[in-house]
Design goal:
Layout lengths: L1 E5 L6 H10 L3 E6 L10 E4 L5 H8 L4 E4 L11 H22 L3 E5 L32 H20 L2 E6 L3 E2 L1 H6 L2 H16 L3 H19 L6 H6 L1 H5 L5 H12 L4 E2 H13 L5 E5 L11 H8 L20 H7 L9
Parallel strand pairs: 1-2, 1-4, 2-3, 4-5, 5-6, 6-9, 7-8
Helix pairs in contact: 1-11, 2-3, 3-4, 7-10
Length: 338
């Protein structure tokens, strides 16, 4: 099988590329780095905005894994981000349609539903979140991921290209977990939550209201977007050492989800091989929350307004459902907690 992988030298792409080589597949990797070298792999420099050059790499392929994208609002102006993520994805699907390629597996994002990079305080309809949830995006990155899923659906209707768009959460590998001391950070957060829950209810409510107000005021000013990042707005104006502020500003919008690269690699492999037709956005993540903490307790603290449950959530089960990925491609996480 001949596979083209865009962005195949990144955090997600490198182990995917290596795994596909282990399977004996003919793997081509393209990216914008002129000096990239991946042992055992064929690499070529190619910008996904260069449609003619892209078409030459797509020819003769059986499937495409599309990972090349700007991964956040921090590093590029919104118009640049949107152009690369959306126009680049359109070029991938159009080149595939012209070459007769009938399967594409791409990286969408958990943020396609709206959330982490947004400027609003999104209240979700129910938990656990699933693929039936209405999308509501308020930032260029999340909107771009909403659009790449629409592009996939369009090319299923137009050209019969079957696709899977993975709504990836935070992606970790062993080196990053160790380098950033993730396990220690999570252990500290569990202790902080325990101490907070021991406070009188009135004190909890007062601190919640203060932290939430500060977090939402900063979000409303787009402080995680390129221009504000250049000015240092978030770093300058965030409350120092206030874990509750950061829980309201960051943690709750991640839904305490993660995926290890071993499992993102598994997901891409299974999606390439799955006998499924159509265009399918899928959540893939661990089936337990990253804190390994009672999920209903986390939801009662940080999403108290959301009372509806699509199904029961047991123990530390993730508030983001992977039921559909299990059913459609046989995905099953191997690293369930950090």
């Amino acid at each position: 099988m001949r596979i083209l992988i865009t962005g195949g030298a990144g955090l997600v792409g490198t182990p995917v590329s290596r795994r596909f080589v282990e399977l004996g597949w003919d793997v081509r990797v393209i990216g914008i780095d002129p000096d990239c070298s991946i042992p055992g792999l064929s690499y070529a420099q190619c910008d996904i905005l260069d449609a003619p050059a892209l078409s030459s790499h797509v020819q003769g392929c059986d499937a495409i894994v599309h990972l090349a994208a700007i991964p956040s609002t921090r590093s590029h102006p919104n118009e640049t981000l949107f152009d690369i993520n959306v126009a680049g994805t359109y070029n991938i699907f159009e080149a595939a349609a012209r070459a007769g390629v009938k399967r594409i597996v791409q990286a969408s994002s958990i943020n396609a539903i709206g959330g982490f990079w947004g400027c609003d305080d999104r209240i979700y309809d129910y938990f656990p979140l699933d693929e039936d949830l209405p999308l509501f995006t308020t930032d260029a990155y999340s909107f771009s991921k909403q659009m790449v899923e629409e592009i996939a659906a369009y090319y299923w209707r137009r050209a019969g290209i079957s696709s899977v768009s993975f709504r990836l959460p935070a992606v970790w590998n062993d080196a990053l977990i160790q380098e950033r001391d993730i396990r220690q950070h999570l252990a500290e957060r569990r202790l902080q939550i325990d101490a907070f829950r021991a406070l009188p209810v009135a004190e909890q409510s007062r601190r919640h209201a203060k932290a939430k107000a500060a977090a939402m005021q900063l979000r409303a000013r787009h402080v995680m977007e390129y221009e504000a990042v250049q000015r240092g707005d978030l770093e300058r104006e965030s409350p120092a050492d206030d874990w509750l502020f950061y829980a309201w500003f960051y943690d709750r919008f991640n839904f305490w989800t993660f995926i290890h690269t071993a499992d993102s690699t598994q997901a891409f492999e299974k999606a390439i091989l799955a006998d499924c037709q159509g265009a399918h956005p899928l959540f893939v993540n661990s089936d337990r929350n990253s804190l390994d903490y009672d999920t209903e307790t986390l939801l009662s603290l940080f999403y108290p307004e959301v009372n509806r449950r699509a199904r029961p959530i047991n123990g530390a089960e993730s508030p983001v459902s992977i039921d559909r990925a299990r059913q459609l491609i046989g995905f099953e996480p191997t690293l369930r907690s950090l």
